[in-house]
Amino acid sequence: MTAQLAAAEVKVLTTGAMKQVVLAVVAEFEQATGHKVSVINDTAGALAKRIEAGEAFDLGIITPAAVDDLIAKGKIAAGSRVNLASVGLGVAAKAGAPLPDIGTVEAFKRALMNAKSIVYTDPAGGGSGGIYFAKLLERLGLAEQMKPKTILVRGALAAERVASGEAELAITQMSEILPVAGVVVVGPLPKEIQNVTTYAGGIGAAAKNSEAARALLKHLAGPATAAVLKSRGMQRPAS
């Protein structure tokens, strides 16, 4: 990266899953370019609604489908979408606690049934992981059984509830488990029921600082971010 001629402030709207990735590379980007970055996070569904309603932003990081929809609605610049990362769902437990077996679908079901409490993102908030997991509980025939011991949270807060002792297990995206102190990753969901979410960036159609936002998007998609993604249980999308 080379320094830009004029420093700008880049407003980033990002999903919770990508927040820690963005924050991890912001200092390097700011130092190299002179730009300043402000990061605001929310669920993918909530961000899409905020952008559609006209909230000002320079760079949005949500799902590819949401970016494409917002391009069609004139809210994100056409041709600016870049797929940045993919991440699957994992299970978190409190550090030091006995870890359940979740290596097979049946073992995962037993772990849920034996848990005193579980926590995941409230589907009503628009989080992709929570929406998927709520449907998965229905598929597994556990929806009604799990209701009395389920805690629903907004945003990327599920693992924190395990760290505080409020819940025994959290089911959330791996990138939202690894940065949280006091919890450990039990493992990813079994591949038969795993759900991988891809996140993409797009430049606001009315961005005040579009060139600076493009520079940040390029940085997020570049090799310097690869190690950050890996450390948070994420990877580059296949395409």
Could you describe the 3D structure shown?
The protein is an alpha/beta fold and 239 residues long. It folds into 2 domains: 9-86 and 198-235, D-Maltodextrin-Binding Protein, domain 2; 89-188, D-Maltodextrin-Binding Protein, domain 2. The chain has helices spanning 16-33, 44-52, 64-72, 105-114, 128-139, 143-146, 158-163, 210-220, 226-231; strands at residues 9-15, 36-42, 59-62, 82-87, 89-94, 118-121, 150-153, 169-173, 183-188, 197-203, 234-235. Strand 1, helix 1 (16-33) and strand 2 form a beta-alpha-beta unit.
What is the CATH top level name of the largest domain? Alpha Beta
**Structural class determined from secondary elements:** alpha/beta
Order of helices and strands: EHEHEHEEHEHHEHEEEHHE
- What fraction strand? 15-25%
| CATH fold description of the largest domain | D-Maltodextrin-Binding Protein, domain 2
Strand order of the largest sheet: 2-1-3-10-4-11
CATH architectural category of the largest domain = 3-Layer(aba) Sandwich
What is the total tally of β strands?
11
Mean pLDDT: 93
In CATH, what is the homologous superfamily of the largest domain?
Periplasmic binding protein-like II
Apparent shape: elongated
| Total domains | 2
Residue ranges: pLDDT <50 for 5 or more in a row?
A: 1-5
